[in-house]
């Protein structure tokens, strides 16, 4: 079975409709998206409390960027020790 792909704008629209009062079951029937998928979108696009309004996706992106930067710092430290010896 071929998996459907939805763009970010469509996902955001569905989440906003849900927040405005439309039930997940109604949205599922109207747009042909499974209820489980809609619940995942709502969870992923909803801000986490006490986190400056960041969504779980945004937090994951920040963590990935942080890991990349930490790796770059380690590489630079190693390079600095190599050049300091010369």
TrEMBL record:
- Single GO molecular function: transposase activity
What is the top-level taxon of the source organism? Bacteria
Alphabetical list of Pfam families matching this protein? HTH_Tnp_1 (PF01527)
| Biological process terms in GO annotation | DNA transposition
InterPro entries, per the entry: Homeodomain-like_sf, Transposase_8
**Name this polypeptide is given:** Transposase
What organism is listed for this UniProt entry? Robertmurraya siralis
């Amino acid at each position: 079975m071929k998996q459907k792909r939805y763009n970010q704008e469509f996902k955001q629209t569905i989440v906003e409709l849900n927040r405005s009062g439309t039930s997940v079951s109604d949205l599922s029937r109207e747009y042909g998206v499974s209820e489980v998928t809609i619940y995942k979108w709502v969870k992923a696009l909803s801000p986490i409390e006490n986190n400056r309004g960041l969504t779980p996706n945004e937090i994951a992106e920040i963590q990935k960027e942080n890991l990349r930067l930490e790796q770059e710092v380690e590489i630079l430290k190693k390079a600095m020790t190599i050049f300091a010896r010369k």
